Amino acid sequence: MSYLVAADIPAEPAGARFCALLDRGGILQIPGAHNGMAALQAKAAGFEAAYLSGAAMTASMGLPDLGMITVDEVCFFVRQVARASALPVLVDGDTGYGEALNVMSMVRSFEDAGAAAVHIEDQLLPKKCGHLNDKKLADPQDMAAKVAAARKARRHLYILARTDAAASEGMDGAVARAKLYMEAGADAIFPEALHSAEMFREFAQRMPGVPLLANMTEFGRTPFFTAAEFEAMGYRMVIWPVSSMRVSAKASETLYAAIRRDGGTQNMIDAMQTRAELYATIDYAGYEALDHSIVSTVVPRGMPQRD
């Protein structure tokens, strides 16, 4: 039930639990969960890890994904997702929030907040979504220094190095950077914005034995591939980073339009999670059971009819 109960708190560090999932073999499916509720729903669906996307976090705050949020703001999301679900959480670390010392501070902050893994990218600020144009890349040695700093600071955090070089430096440049980042201490590589099966296969073939992450974002440069297809191409992890936020935002847009049009929510009831479903998802009764002084809640049976 809830993370407040000692028996339910995982004994192993989050990073160790993430590594254990990878060590089982196959491909680890990591859906995006932009808040605690989404993480609970992902867990209920059977997923064993969750992803926190910078784009999803910033969009949920009403901001663009341009490297504008702070480590503390990200930690707020990490805490709610990790605490609510107890899932190992892979976190988007953007460019590391500065240089080597900043990266080390970020790693410790994310670990303290409950993160299991982080990826750091080789862009310069202002950074952009990996599937957009005109990204500015950091010097490879500067990025390698950040990876080394993250490795030095981590206690258990799993470190992925993301390279956005394929778009501007081609496959040779992306592979060269990836090899340098592995030498600097990365545990895995995230090649961003590859746009064909041939590119995914080539990158995997040129990085033998290295755990690789694939990004299956919608409305980007990558065609739709399934988890099984990515696994066949040589990838160990796949994320769907912003999907939960996109679906939730579209549903909210529909709701507000209906209220404005109809003067109420009466025509949207069938699209809503019921009170009973909500309470089951967040384990309302379990929280009440923690303190017997709280009178057990009785969920109303349907809405009353108008006279």
Keywords:
five-stranded parallel sheet, alpha/beta, single chain, TIM Barrel, three-stranded parallel sheet, 307 residues, 12 helices, 46% helix
Structure summarized in a few sentences:
With 307 residues, the chain is of the alpha/beta class.
Describe the structure.
- By secondary structure, the chain is an alpha/beta fold.
- It has 2 domains: 239 residues, Phosphoenolpyruvate-binding domains (TIM Barrel, Alpha-Beta Barrel); 42 residues, no CATH class.
- 46% of the residues lie in helices and 11% in strands.
- It has 12 helices and 8 strands.
- The strands form 2 sheets. A 5-stranded parallel sheet has the order 2-3-4-5-6.
- Strand 3, helix 5 and strand 4 form a beta-alpha-beta unit.
- The protein is globular, with a radius of gyration of 21 Å.
- The mean pLDDT is 92.
Structural class of the secondary elements? Answer: alpha/beta
Architecture per CATH nomenclature, i.e. the level-2 architecture of the largest domain:
Alpha-Beta Barrel
- For this structure, the CATH topology of the largest domain is TIM Barrel
Give the distance, in angstroms, between the N- and C-terminal Cα atoms: 41 Å
Proportion of residues in extended strands: 5-15%
The order of strands across the largest sheet is: 2-3-4-5-6
Rg computed from alpha carbons, rounded to a whole number of angstroms: 21 Å
Q: Count the helices. How many?
A: 12
For the largest beta-sheet, the strand count, sense and barrel status come to:
5 strands, parallel
Q: How many strands appear in the DSSP assignment?
A: 8
